[in-house]
Design goal:
Blueprint lengths: L1 E2 L20 E3 L14 E2 L6 E6 L2 E6 L4 E6 L8 E5 L2 E5 L4 E6 L5 E5 L5 E9 L2 E8 L3 E7 L4 E6 L4 E6 L5 E6 L3 E7 L5 E8 L5 E6 L5 E6 L3 E6 L5 E6 L10 E6 L7 E6 L3 E6 L6 E5 L9 E6 L5 E6 L3 E5 L2 H6 L7
Parallel strand pairs: 1-18
Antiparallel strand pairs: 2-29, 3-4, 4-5, 5-6, 7-8, 8-9, 9-10, 11-12, 12-13, 13-14, 15-16, 16-17, 17-18, 19-20, 20-21, 21-22, 23-24, 24-25, 25-26, 27-28, 28-29
Keywords: WD repeat
Pfam families: DUF2415 (PF10313), WD40 (PF00400)
InterPro entries: DUF2415, WD40/YVTN_repeat-like_dom_sf, WD40_repeat_dom_sf, WD40_rpt
Length: about 350
């Protein structure tokens, strides 16, 4: 089905504070290889550690001990994409390069998957196994098994694929690319991918998408400065959220994430430079806009990540990582609500 949405963006109250002020600053350098691909920091296991890209290495950093560890060093390529989940870490490059490592063992593998830029990576579980999905500029999503790196299938789309995300329950996948279309897939028990919906985001390409922890809602971040949200139980768009600097290029929404703890219920998205936005993912009526760059200059944002317990939010800059505490007590005391 095709859905077109033209109503105005969501009206938001901005007098809330989901993040506590005064972030902790970690002097770690993060490098951006492609001006539109900004998902280069992740926090898969603990609020005390994040993983990030620095030149031709992927490093881990412990925020308590302030020790940096090279997890992938001296790669033959500077990563354009990064993900970590299910005990694995993967990095992709501009010429279809791929490096995968099991985080708690010495196992690793590297290959080229064909095509062009590996724009984004997604690791998910399926029927007791683990899969790696590679969003490529050659208009495909390549699906591999882990740890065997056996190609299971290749999903053809009508545009270069910039991002794909599998729902936490493993039953759905959403993908976006160099058009304003959003593609929703059903993942069968047998492991096949069947397209069940095509939606319209806004007017330009999208570079990030994410699911909430209940697998009921997904969000898409677009270059024209909007985040669109849908509920899989309804065809109409749930809401459209703007950025602080929209419609300027620096207000492009580059990365979007949901908190993984249901009691926190936050939607987080970054802009091209200087600002991150947090929205109440229960009602989508309340937003906090946080300037993460100095007042007198803009700074590029390389990625955003929330800890698995949703107590900490990390914002990657080019020369540092900001660590914000989430006001979890206030979030857990909020009444639950819904737009539906």
């Amino acid at each position: 089905m095709s859905v077109t949405y033209t109503s105005p963006s969501q009206i938001l109250r901005e007098d809330c504070a989901f993040l506590k002020p005064q972030p902790r600053i970690h002097n770690q350098r993060l490098t951006i290889q492609h001006w539109q691909l900004r998902d280069l920091i992740t926090c898969p296991n603990s609020s005390e550690e994040f993983i990030y890209v620095n030149q031709n290495s992927v490093n881990g950093y412990n925020t308590r001990t302030r020790v940096t560890t090279q997890i992938m060093k001296d790669l033959s390529f500077p990563p354009t994409s990064l993900t970590a989940a299910c005990g694995y870490l993967a990095a992709g490059g501009q010429r279809s390069q791929l490096m995968v490592k099991q985080i708690n063992s010495n196992w690793y593998a590297h290959t080229t998957v064909g095509g062009s830029i590996n724009n984004a990576l997604c690791i998910s579980e399926h029927l007791g196994g683990t899969r790696l999905l590679i969003s490529n500029n050659d208009e495909t999503i390549k699906v591999y098994s882990l740890p065997g790196l056996q190609r299971l299938t290749s999903i053809q789309l009508p545009t270069a694929v910039n991002y794909a995300s599998v729902s936490p329950d493993g039953r759905k996948m959403v993908a976006v690319g160099d058009s304003n279309q959003v593609f929703l897939y059903d993942i069968s028990v047998a492991g096949g991918y069947q397209k069940i919906g095509t939606y319209t985001a806004t007017t330009e390409a999208s570079f990030s998408c994410a699911w909430n922890q209940s697998s009921e809602k997904f969000a898409v971040a677009s270059q024209d400065g909007y985040v669109s949200v849908w509920d899989v139980r309804h065809s109409e768009k749930l809401c459209k959220l703007g950025s602080k600097q929209q419609p300027q290029t620096k207000g492009a929404t580059r990365c979007v994430k949901f908190s993984s703890s249901g009691s926190i219920d936050l939607l987080l998205y970054s802009e091209h430079v200087s600002y991150v936005n947090l929205v109440d993912a229960r009602t989508f009526n309340d937003r906090q806009v946080v300037r993460v760059a100095p007042l007198n200059s803009d700074e590029h944002i390389s990625g955003i990540a929330m800890s698995p317990d949703s107590k900490v939010c990390f914002v990657g800059m080019e020369h540092s990582v900001l660590e914000f505490d989430v006001d979890t007590i206030t979030r857990r005391s909020f009444p639950s609500g819904s737009l539906i």
